[in-house]
Amino acid sequence: MPELPEVETTRRGILPALQGQTLQSIIVRNPRLRWPVPADLEAQLAGKRLLDVRRRGKYLLFDFGDVIQLVHLGMSGSLRFVGSDEPALLHDHVDWRFDADTILRLRDPRRFGAVLLTHDGSSHPLLAQLGPEPLTAEFDTAYLYSRCRGRGAAIKQVIMDAHTVVGVGNIYASESLFHAGIRPATAARRLTRPACARLVDAIKRVLEAAIAAGGSSLRDYVHSSGELGYFQLATRVYDREGMPCKVCGTPIRRIVQGQRASFYCPVCQR
Ligand SMILES: [Zn+2]
To answer: Of 58, 69, 89, 181, whose CB is crowded by the most CB atoms within 10 A?
Structure first.
């Protein structure tokens, strides 16, 4: 599933070619995504200049001035540029044609993605309830500490809750907790202020490293026909059950929380 780093890398990859370009036409081959693609998508957008592509959580916001197109990549979606002579395959559901050389194509085999229109990028129901962006100053120690007060839920589930902070997926949650030295099942209310400081710092560093890893592969996926996959992240604990901790050598443990696997080192994490 594309996570925040993949979505941010996609944004950075497509923005230079699209910013300031006028959208000529749209082809919707299959409108049955997670929600129906608006029937008036082309009528609303064609002829308009794309001013910017922003990101909120895992949503891409294509800013056409008076109207904003929201794109979510769902479980399996990807965006890439294709040549005008490149035939569309079975799962290539939407094309945006800016000019003969600039065609953006959405591929989404599982169709959990979304293409929607809104006039307000902050009050849309899908965006209004989202917590702060993890890489902004708004997500800081005082904020996380306040969110943990009085909460008996496991800290891993608290940081994966988009109401707390957006974009901390399962892999990134396990990795961040390792770097912060906190066990994933620890009740959020037990975190001290210094522990919250370490966790905020770890989340930012883990996500930034993943974005940097994606940036190095940017050219490849934007310009080739390859699909955007998970970035190869050198994980410390994720998916390493029974393997030695890279810091202390103790076998990594696996537990299940909220039906998701969590991994931790019983020595490095307390
Ligand atoms: Zn260890």
So the answer is: 69
